[in-house]
Design brief:
The complex is a heterodimer of chains A (284) and B (328). Chain A is an alpha+beta fold and 284 residues long. Chain A has nine helices and nine strands. Helix content of chain A is 32%, strand content 19%. The two termini of chain A are 37 Å apart. By secondary structure, chain B is α+β, with helices and mostly antiparallel strands. Chain B is globular and about 70 Å long. Chain B starts with 13 loop residues before the first helix and ends in a 9-residue tail after the last helix. The chains are: A alpha+beta (284), B alpha+beta (328). Chain A: It comes from Calocera viscosa (strain TUFC12733). Chain A: GO terms for molecular function: endopeptidase activator activity; proteasome binding.
Amino acid sequence: MLSFKAGRCNRRGETNWVDPTPTKGLITLETSAEDGLLHFSWKNRETGATDEDLILFPSEANFLKVDNVTGGRVYVLKFSSSDQRYFFWMQNADTGRDEYYAHNVNGLLDDPSFSPAEPPAAPAPVASTSAAPEPAAPSGSSQPSMEEQLRQLRELVQSATATAGTAAGPELTLTDVITPQSLEPLFARPDLLLAIFPNLPADLPGERNADTIREVIQSSAFKASLRGLQQALNTGLLSNLVISLGLPPEAGTGVGPFLRAISEQAQSSSTENPEGGDEHMETD
Amino acid sequence: MSDESGWSLTESDPAVFTSLLHSLGCNTLLVDDLWSLDDPGLLASLQPIHALIFLFKWLGGEEGEGELQGGGRYDAEFPGFFAHQVVNNACATIAVLNGVFNVPSIPMGADLTQLREFSAGMDPLMSGYSITNSSAVRNAHNALSSSANSPFSIDPSLYDQNEKEDAYHFVVYVPVAAQLYELDGLRRAPVAHGGWEGGEGWLDVARRTIQRRIGAYPQGSLHFSLLAVRTDNLPGMEAELERARGVGDEQGASEIAGRVYAEKAKRAQWEFENALRRHNHVGLIHALLLGLAKSGGLEGAVDKAKGKMAERREKAAKGGSGGGAVEE
């Protein structure tokens, strides 16, 4: 399954103008378990609703970059057998990954059993977090005017300087997020710790307590796993894995989305469970 | 991450080697760190020692094939077992077997027995291939590889540099037919270092040979470690403890009890580390982050982590070395 952030663009009637809408969205390509066919869907990340769900047969469509939009990141889903066009614009903070996503989409559109490739090794992919603003919706048509091109160029320069600080590498490493010091708020909550212990190896000798967890997170095996997870998250291909953790598919697109989704998961589970054995609920 | 041969990267750790041997049926053997060759008390407490494994990383680059640092001469007529290292990731396991297969009367499992019999009379290259192709040995080796136990392949560059097995070279010192032999899977033949006489034993010759070798490198250019393959003495110590208590030797009993306690604590620590190596940590990582979020600490932890990363980048930009590499 492939997922990446993208917004939609509306076409103005029969003209060549497309107006991007600012709504945050997610394109997902997935072979459905129900019908065994490849679905190209667009989910509205603000409402959670899947507003577009297309079933595509092999070689029926292509995902192409619209060249006439200067600096814009507009792509079109174009059908070989009809005039239908769906326009999208990339919302992933790292523009360097656009080609990689497009390449993988086309691979799947040609043959649903295609294995998506990993992004290019250099430069290091930027973890998309709230610090890197999402690019403003570009506007464009197949014949942009001079003023239009200048405006797009200005927008491009603005977004480039905003992301310049993070372009040099990842913003954080998970091995700094999970440390004995950082976990102190968790260690102060024996009720929350109870949920952690079942995730330790069954054959781990010793007692189950905060000290054990401190030792585990400082072990070489745990740290290697943490780094491996981070690296895998950076490929953006972990949607299937994160779903098994009860997270939405976009949590598999990067370290930032992963952490944000967990934050949301924590909030929604405490509101879902008014009688759940959490005595500290009232003080939250 | 495994190479095409299917052998994954593991750590060079006594706990890993010991568990490897036990899973292959060598239940009486242990592999332990040997901190010093000069301490007779230490050596005595670890006896009987059957083989020494010298692992080292020369910071100056690849060692030449022809130079025999530390003396000795090639012996193509070596009567024991010697296998070449044909797969990089298997180098530690090949070294361990080069040691163990040359120790007489060691109990071992059926797979190892068959492997040793099968390779009798083979040249070192074929012996190396036999080991590499043994699924029993490969599976035992991979069982303790963090990367083999994770749901995604881990880039070897993620391992702490000092722990990467393939960054180290392994050499085994073992007595065979009254001579000390040096078995190096990357050399064309075993190296003979002579015999011993008088009050000495093979360990004395080994100590001199290894010290000579270490001395041949410029100061500080060699990272090395020494491991002892020895017979587990815990059952023996416990029997001694029983006897001492039986005859009312309070002092003796408490001294032995102390050693037994220390030894058991070490084994428990090894079990702890090995259990973590075999474990898939993804569920635990998610549970920790979720628990931290519920306790209200996730945002703070993320902010601090970003701060640390920014600091590292600044330091790297000023200092010039190490780049954005994360150190533990």
